[in-house]
Every structure is written in structure tokens, then in C-alpha cells.
């Protein structure tokens, strides 16, 4: 993910991104999903101890790990992970899971670039 997008997440939700391990290692296409997820979590008033501990791609979809979460927050995180399975990780347009040398969720345009 581009540094400017990471900075936007980190500056808007500083409590969620307390350590550098929580910074997304995904492509730009999932930024909106992460932005919406963080806004929903913030609206739930998580405990002061809540933080995101890791955000990455695994098996072609988003994976979000957290500390001091609740069942409701976990539902928000799961919703974001599910949305990633139909969102191109490169551009954010509708996509689907593609099987190549690595599983990735991509739109038709980015599928052509992927081998």
C-alpha cells in the first residue's frame, strides 16, 4: 500500500496502529475496505487497549488481526475480510479469486497482468 494511504490510516486512527506491524502490507485496492472497517470500529468505542496487530493478504483475501477485541468488532473485521474476496486488491474494483502462482483477488484488467 502506498505510503500516503498508510499515513492517512495511521493519522486518522492512531490508537489502532500503535505498532508498525499493524500497518497494511496489502495493495491499494483494499484501502477503502480498511478505511470503512476502522470507521466502524471507532464508532463502537473500543477499549483503550484495542489495537490492530497485523493486516496482510493471505490466500488471496485480507487478514486482520487485533488485540483486545470484542465479538462485535470481530464481526466488523470478518465483514472486511469477506469484502476483500470480491474486491480487486490492486484497484478496488469488483474482482474474484484468481489462481496463478499465488492466490489473488483481482479484476479482469489486473488478471491479465497476473501470471
What are the salient characteristics of this protein?
115 residues; alpha+beta; two-stranded antiparallel sheet; two-stranded antiparallel ribbon; 4 helices; 20% strand
Tell me what the structure shows.
By secondary structure, the protein is an alpha+beta fold. It has one domain. It has helices at 3-12, 31-43, 71-84, 108-113, and strands spanning 51-58, 61-67, 96-99, 103-106. The strands form 2 sheets. Strands 1-2 form a two-stranded antiparallel ribbon. A two-stranded antiparallel sheet has the order 3-4. α2 (31-43) runs antiparallel to α3 (71-84). The longest helix is centred in the last third of the chain and has 14 residues, at 71-84. The protein is elongated and about 45 Å long. The model has no long low-confidence stretch (mean pLDDT 94).
Q: How helical, in percent, are the residues? A: 25-40%
How big a fraction of the residues is strand? 15-25%
Number of helices: 4
- Total strand count, please? 4
Computed over alpha carbons, the radius of gyration is: 14 Å
Strand order of the largest sheet: 1-2
Number of structural units classed as domains: 1
Mean pLDDT: 94
Task: Sum up the overall morphology in one term.
Answer: elongated
Largest sheet: 2 strands, antiparallel
Order of helices and strands: HHEEHEEH
How far apart lie the N and C ends?
20 Å
Helix and strand composition category: alpha+beta
**Uncertain residue segments:** none
Amino acid at each position: 500500500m502506498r505510503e500516503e494511504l498508510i499515513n492517512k490510516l495511521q493519522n486518522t486512527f492512531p490508537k489502532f496502529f500503535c505498532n508498525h506491524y499493524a500497518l497494511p502490507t496489502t495493495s491499494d485496492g483494499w484501502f477503502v475496505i480498511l478505511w470503512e472497517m476502522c470507521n466502524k470500529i471507532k464508532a463502537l468505542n473500543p477499549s483503550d487497549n484495542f489495537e490492530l496487530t497485523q493486516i496482510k493478504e493471505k490466500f488471496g483475501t485480507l487478514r486482520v488481526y487485533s488485540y483486545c477485541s470484542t465479538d462485535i468488532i470481530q464481526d466488523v473485521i470478518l465483514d472486511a475480510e469477506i469484502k476483500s474476496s470480491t474486491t480487486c486488491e490492486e484497484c478496488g474494483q469488483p474482482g474474484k479469486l484468481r489462481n496463478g502462482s499465488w492466490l489473488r483477488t483481482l479484476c479482469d484488467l489486473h488478471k491479465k497482468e497476473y501470471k
